[in-house]
Amino acid sequence: MTKPGNFERHCLLPRTPFPASAESQKPRLKKAQEFPILEKQNWLIHLHYIRKDYEACKAVIKEQLQETQGLCEYAIYVQALILRLEGNIQESLELFQTCAVLSPQCADNLKQVARSLFLLGKHKAAIEVYNEAAKLNQKDWEICHNVGVCYIYLKQFSKAQDQLHNALHLNRHDLTYIMLGKIHLLEGDLDKAIEIYKKAVEFSPENTELLTTLGLLYLQAILAAGSMMQTHGDFDVALTKYRVVACAVPESPPLWNNIGMCFFGKKKYVAAISCLKRANYLAPFDWKILYNLGLVHLTMQQYASAFHFLSAAISLQPKMGELYMLLAVALTNLEDPENAKRAYAEAARLDKCQPLVNLNYAVLLYKQGEKEGALAQYQEMERSVRLLRDSGSLEFDSEMVEMAQKLGAALRVGDALVWTKPVKDAKSKHRTTSTGKAAGVQQPLGSNQALGQAMSSAAAHRKLPPGAGGTSQLTRPPSLPLEPEPAVEAHPAEASAPRREKQEEDDPGVGVSSVRM
Predict the structure, then answer these.
(1) Residue 317 is assigned to a structural domain of this protein
(2) Predicted TM-score (pTM) of this structure
(3) Furthest-apart CA pair in the chain: how many Å?
(4) How far is CA 225 from CA 190, 228, 254, 328, 349, in A?
(5) Cα distance between the two ends of the chain
(6) Residue 194 covered by a domain
(7) Alpha-carbon distance 282 to 249, whole Å?
């Protein structure tokens, strides 16, 4: 029998402890950390913004700013973005500046400030802010790109090219190639522009804008080559070039205008009118095409049609004196001397340094028996000739000189003629005339030699009155072949204006030049 004492002692002996379980050794999970009050609504603001639910986004922003007393940087930043999208550029600029104050080491805030300054047209200020942002992030290609765009607006193309090349060195991007190509187009360097766009296409062959622009530049180069050949009278070669362009761009108004003027140079007037009318159908508000149509109809002595097209050209280009002079020629042949005088007066008012306008006007006045007015216009012509001769910008046309000499003899001022400079022989020029002369030399629109070949109203269709010293022949007014269409706009944001060239097309008598697009 066991003793109670022994039993009690046995029961009270300490037991060996078991090892603790692994679960009991795991530390307790801490309570999730709460977001600071300044940032707790940022996720909701971002969600509404990317969904373009701007009204809901602005409501959350307003609530967040009230809770944070206007110190939530992200809410202010998104509010500035929304204001800029709504067109409130100045207000967005002020909010971005607030963000820059709250976080002065953030380059993104400075970039947004500079962007708003750029949109306000403050390009120099934008460049300064971009330079400050570049100090915080020297490897940001976007900063270099945007600085280059600002320099484009300031017309500092060399600095713009340097910045855009730096952007390409940091990170090649389609938009940077496009802006660099536009700089070369603004500088008139078509070859370099093509080279840049070729590199861009190699980098991004799937970009349709780059492919389209490069194709248009190639077509523009072909059209320009054809225009050069047309200028020197190589009409068949020019037509060969234009045929290549016509296969790719069959609805180009400048193309059909130039083709029409090639036929005009080959004296195929019906074909010329057909091509020019197609160009006019494609571009009804292009005054140069209307100018050329008026020229061809004047050459064919279809004065009513010439009046129609020249009037339409004047309505689109009312500040060009040469158009009024040609309109006066048509009116003279339509036996409307009063309106012809008004047209000549307007031409003389718009172009005060053009002796041919005064010569034509003087001849018309002489034929109408107004010798005093004719003498005044003749003296004005001599004044213009002296000015142009002194500046060295005038080559006298022999037919113009001959007409002036005849009129001077009729007005009894022949001894005071100012035609002392050696006259360039008209036969030495390549010209297109109704009597078989070849096509003309290119002159800038409104140049003195081009106007020196403009047709004289006195020589248009009848002889001078007895004592005028002789007769003159019908001549051709200026024709306007078009230059290639611009391929791109020039501006960072996108924009650019084409040059106009001119080609002479004249008849015996006093002829006029033609404009190319």
Answers:
(1) no
(2) 0.59
(3) 175
(4) 12, 5, 13, 35, 37
(5) 132
(6) yes
(7) 12
